[in-house]
Specification:
Blueprint lengths: L11 H22 L10 H17 L6 H21 L8 H16 L4 H12 L10 H15 L6 H16 L2 H22 L3 H18 L2 H13 L9 H16 L7 H4 L2 H4 L1 H4 L1 H12 L2 H10 L6 H4 L20 H20 L4 E3 H8 L6 H10 L3 E6 L4 E7 L6 H77 L51 H4 L2
Antiparallel strand pairs: 1-3, 2-3
């Protein structure tokens, strides 16, 4: 809930004087409309006039108040508020448009005192009562005022607890489903934090959950009502489990659990000390709880023969809810307790059969025999059990069996642990077999991969040898060419090496020994730095000319 702030101007004595005069006016109006008009009506303003005068004098004094004077002011304010709050119920008879403003002013004055916890629970109790002047919109006005009070208080203020109880009381008295729906989200998200911050004891926690349970039931939310009823049951201290109040709550919780069509888990009840004490005070009711916790349809019918449900007073007076509230039927008529109990026991019996099935398969004939129904109705009951969340599986019409995927254990003891151990051993052996198959297939795959890779490896070797041969041939040719070139370079002629040459050698007839150039004679052909050069002789022609 968001935090609200009340904006009211004026000093305490001025506002208290105004509220007292207003209360006197409403009292006179109500008295005039009553069966005894003209009766003397006490004046609240007259009772607090002297106190207000003293407060006004101290408020107007320019001197700073001492600690003792401050305490006096607080005590005088408390006395004024006692008179105002005592007369506050008359505000429920104020005109519809003035009720909210009048209560807001009263709450503001209470917040100015040092005794908020003394007055606020009483104001909340007044708001939880009917408003004669507004029978149609009274609950909405009350909820609005209470919500404002709740939000003006600090989150950890324990006074919020009393405001919350008043809100639940208004919802319960009006059966306002709309108002309760608006609170459901906050209940699920913030209620645990509220309980912790308010520092509630066990009795207060129990009262809180009971108020929510009653409001939820009045609003038509049976599931949430049962949830908080169990919370209230577990809030009972072990030392008080044998008290009359604890017995009444245990009986109510047990009969509610048995009569609600959607409750199949009875563990929260069997774990309660208050419920266990019913073994001696309400033996038949407690025996019925044990039947629904562990036994089957046969044991239940044997019990009913000896102890008819109508003979159990706690169950005979239970009002069942309409199946239309659930999803099990389209009928709007509420079934009898006997019908609900028998239906629930059949579903629980089927769940036990599914949990005990060694092969995880239930033939239709076995189900029909255990539930005492016709074979044609087996599938209907299996589907209802699946909808209840007790089992999961698949129906096989061809084989006439129900294949169980999951089943809920109603109790979990030594026998159930043994079944779990046996199934775990079966699963372990199955996993070992799977691992062995995987290892075997892995080895086969490796061998097949090696055999398939052998020809490919040989071809790779052959290709590598061929590449090596090609490389060697190319390398050899390169070496021969390099040797040939080096031999050629070593046998080149240089006209400076030999002073005389054979004049008739055709290979060098074009080469003339260097002569001294006379002035005016044409120059010799240019010589390259690598040797000699002649335009009519190309270097690549030399090998054929040399010996």
């Amino acid at each position: 809930m968001a935090t609200n702030t009340l904006l009211i101007e004026g000093s305490f004595d001025e506002l208290a004087d105004e509220l007292a005069r207003y209360i006197d006016t409403i009292r006179k109006t109500v008295s005039a409309a009553s069966a005894t008009p003209g009766a003397e009506v006490a004046s609240v303003h007259a009772e607090i006039a002297q106190l207000l005068e003293r407060l006004r004098e101290k408020d107007q004094s320019e001197e700073e108040l001492t600690e003792e004077q401050t305490k006096e002011v607080q005590n005088e304010r408390t006395e004024v508020l006692k008179k105002l709050v005592l007369a506050a119920p008359v505000l429920n008879g104020a005109p519809e448009k003035e009720i909210t403003a009048a209560y807001n002013l009263l709450v503001y004055l209470v917040r100015q005192s040092s005794s908020v916890d003394m007055f606020l629970p009483k104001i909340c109790a007044f708001l939880a009562k009917p408003m004669p002047s507004s029978p149609l919109h009274g609950p909405s006005i009350a909820l609005s005022i209470l919500a404002t009070i709740f939000n003006t208080l600090d989150a950890d203020d324990s006074s919020r607890y009393h405001v919350f109880l008043a809100i639940m009381a208004v919802i319960r008295s009006t059966s306002s489903a709309l108002a309760f729906e608006a609170l459901k989200t906050q209940l699920s998200n913030q209620l645990p934090g509220w309980i912790e911050s308010w520092d509630l004891d066990e009795e207060e926690t129990q009262k809180l959950h009971m108020s929510i349970s009653d409001a939820a039931r009045a609003a038509g939310d049976a599931e949430l009502s049962y949830h908080h009823l169990i919370q209230a049951l577990h809030a009972i201290p072990p030392a008080e489990a044998a008290s009359t109040q604890a017995r009444e709550m245990a009986v109510r919780s047990l009969t509610t659990a048995l009569s609600l069509p959607f409750v199949f888990d009875f563990t929260p009840l069997t774990s309660s000390d208050a419920v266990q004490n019913l073994r001696s005070t309400d033996a038949s009711l407690f025996e019925l709880l044990e039947l629904f916790s562990t036994d089957d349809l046969d044991a239940y019918e044997d019990f009913v023969k000896e102890n008819p449900i109508s003979s159990i007073s706690a169950l005979a007076s239970v009002k069942t809810i309409s199946p239309a509230t659930t999803t099990s039927s389209a009928s709007s008529e509420a079934p009898s307790v006997e019908t609900i109990l028998q239906t629930k026991m059949r579903l629980l019996t089927l769940a036990s059969l599914a949990a005990k099935a060694p092969s995880r398969s239930l033939p239709y004939n076995d189900i029909a025999a255990a539930l005492r129904i016709e074979r044609e109705d087996v599938e209907k009951w299996v589907i209802d059990t699946i909808r209840a969340g007790l089992v999961e599986g698949k129906l096989s019409q061809l084989k006439g069996e129900f294949l169980v995927h999951r089943a809920t254990y109603r109790v979990f003891g030594e026998r159930q642990w043994g079944e779990v151990q046996g199934r775990l051993m079966v699963w372990k052996q199955s996993l070992l077999n799977v691992l062995e198959v995987i290892r075997s297939e892995k080895e086969k795959f490796k061998e097949a991969a090696s055999a398939a890779a052998a020809p490919t490896h040989l071809l790779s070797l052959i290709a590598a040898l061929r590449d090596r041969q090609k490389f060697d041939v190319a390398k050899k040719r390169t070496e021969e060419r390099d040797l040939h070139r080096s031999a050629l370079n070593s046998r080149r002629f240089d006209y400076t090496e030999s002073p005389t040459h054979r004049q008739d050698d055709p290979r060098i007839r074009l080469l003339q020994p260097p002569t001294k150039l006379r002035q005016g004679q044409p120059s010799m052909p240019r010589l390259r730095s690598s040797g000699w050069y002649h335009p009519q002789v190309r270097p690549h022609d030399l090998p054929s000319m040399l010996p």
